[in-house]
């Protein structure tokens, strides 16, 4: 496949053999080497130093001469990224490829007191510090056993603890980041009730954490200091029981598509991610934004090299400036550690056919489609307006997906070409970029985006929308069925 008319490389949709003749864009190409599935081969002669183009964007420079039909990968393609840039406002076309439907999709969700919509009705236990993380899990297990009948009847969707190792021996911005992240999770609409479980002597004190939670969400939050309690297990159990009784009164009701806040994530990407799964999310993001909903894009280091196309869609100068500053701040974060900004892709990405960070980024930003960029969100803060939001967080799967949840995402759409079982507090929808993964890991995967290579885009979009509506309305994801629910906090400072 030649993705864009300006591309100087094409992608092998199946393993290709040396000597095979491939016809693309009115020309015939004889392959000089075997080309693994998902990898690239050259459509033209490149001299050393020439730009190599994929998705219509430069993905690096040839490090040696490349003849037509040759395999293009890490042996002859290198990054051109160097560091911070001076970005210039542009004007991108916002013509949309959004999917259209005869009727606006409607899902069944919970409307909370603050007006936000929830896809789940759960009780969450958030430890302030790693010292009581296992205690939080113990409390959750006991409570789920006591309330098994209500969970089975669908009155509540679960009682879940989210352990982590942080909250003490932290200073300054590092501690503030932990507190902001936990405060964002405590405010999440999917949590009908939240128990903040503290130890008592930790840096992340309960009072300061409660102060960081938005006022509109504090009514559902309870706290307990384990050192101050008599029997912390019994006292926590009583608090949870009261929360369950109240949460069980909630009822699902019809809600519009625009009530959804959706996190966009890719992990374990391969050469197909930018061809199938990420464009699928892009079309959905455009549809969601047009309906008044909020798609959230993050993984800032994984837009390096493709950021200008995103910045060009900023709705005003303030949003453009905030987004440009965020990208350069991340680059400076790398450079201050003595690391290149291009220290990506991962070994799994490379094995799947992705060579440079520019190539990975050009595929990754497709998750947002052409939706206008309306806001930039700090780590731990919540999305507060419709349209595409850009969230401060790194590329790490667990850290960025947790940040998306704390920002208010009630679904996390996670594309992958290599596969992963891990899920996060918001229902995590795993979308396979290739048929082999979808077939071999059916217990991990919720949707097979590779169908876009075989059928019509409209058919795939409709099937994907139907799947998301079912999950938003209560159908469990593969990760939820497996009990794969976790959080990870971005630790970026010194430890005492």
Automatic annotation (TrEMBL):
Top-level taxon in the UniProt lineage: Bacteria
SMART domains: SAF (SM00858)
Keyword Lyase set for record: yes
InterPro entries: GD_AH_C (IPR048332), GD_AH_second (IPR007392), SAF (IPR013974), SAF_UxaA/GarD (IPR044144), UxaA_altronate/galactarate_dh (IPR052172)
Positions of the SAF domain: 7-78
Molecular-function GO term, any one: lyase activity
Any single GO BP term: D-galacturonate catabolic process
Keywords: Lyase
Pfam family, one: GD_AH_C
Family statement: Belongs to the UxaA family.
The protein, known as: Altronate dehydratase
Organism from which the protein derives: Sphingomonas ursincola
């Amino acid at each position: 496949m030649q993705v864009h008319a300006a591309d100087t490389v094409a992608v092998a949709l199946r393993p290709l053999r040396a000597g095979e003749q491939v016809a693309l864009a009115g020309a015939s190409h004889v392959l000089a080497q075997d080309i693994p599935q998902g990898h690239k081969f050259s459509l033209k002669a490149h001299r050393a130093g020439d730009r190599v183009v994929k998705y219509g964007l430069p993905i690096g420079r040839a490090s040696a001469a490349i003849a037509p039909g040759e395999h293009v990968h890490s042996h002859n393609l290198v990054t051109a990224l160097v560091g911070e840039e001076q970005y210039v406002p542009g004007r991108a076309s916002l013509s949309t490829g959004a999917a259209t439907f005869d009727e606006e999709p409607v899902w069944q969700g919970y409307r909370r007191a603050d007006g936000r919509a929830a896809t789940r009705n759960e009780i969450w236990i958030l430890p302030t510090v790693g010292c009581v993380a296992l205690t939080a899990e113990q409390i959750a297990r006991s409570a789920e056993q006591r309330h098994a009948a209500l969970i089975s009847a669908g009155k509540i969707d679960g009682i879940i603890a989210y352990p982590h190792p942080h909250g003490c021996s932290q200073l300054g911005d590092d501690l503030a980041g932990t507190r902001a992240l936990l405060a964002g999770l405590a405010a999440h609409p999917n949590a009908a009730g939240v128990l903040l479980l503290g130890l008592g002597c930790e840096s992340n004190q309960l009072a300061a954490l409660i102060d960081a939670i938005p006022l509109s969400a504090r009514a559902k939050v309870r706290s307990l200091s384990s050192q101050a309690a008599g029997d912390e297990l019994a006292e926590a159990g009583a608090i949870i029981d009261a929360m369950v009784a109240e949460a069980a009164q909630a009822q699902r009701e019809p809600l519009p598509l625009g009530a959804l806040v959706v996190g966009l994530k890719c992990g374990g990407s391969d050469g197909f991610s930018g061809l199938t799964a990420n464009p699928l999310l892009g079309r959905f993001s455009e549809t969601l934004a047009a309906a008044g909903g909020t798609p959230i894009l993050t993984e800032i280091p994984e837009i390096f090299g493709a950021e200008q196309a995103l910045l060009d869609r900023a709705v005003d100068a303030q949003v453009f400036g905030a987004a440009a500053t965020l990208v350069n701040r991340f680059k400076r974060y790398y450079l201050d550690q003595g690391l290149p900004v291009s220290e990506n892709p991962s070994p799994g990405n490379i094995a799947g056919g992705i060579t440079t960070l520019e190539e990975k980024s050009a595929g990754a930003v497709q998750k947002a489609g052409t939706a206008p960029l309306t806001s930039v969100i700090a780590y731990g803060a919540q999305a507060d307006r419709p349209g595409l939001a850009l969230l401060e967080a790194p590329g790490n799967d667990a850290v960025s997906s947790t940040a998306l949840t704390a920002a208010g995402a009630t679904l996390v759409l996670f594309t992958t070409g290599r596969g992963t079982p891990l899920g996060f507090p918001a229902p995590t929808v795993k979308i396979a970029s290739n048929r082999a993964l979808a077939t071999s890991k059916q217990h991990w995967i919720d949707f097979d985006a590779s169908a876009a290579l075989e059928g019509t885009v409209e058919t795939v979009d409709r099937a994907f929308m139907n799947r998301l509506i079912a999950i938003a309305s209560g159908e469990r994801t593969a990760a939820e069925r497996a009990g794969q629910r976790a959080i990870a906090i971005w630790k970026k400072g010194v430890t005492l």
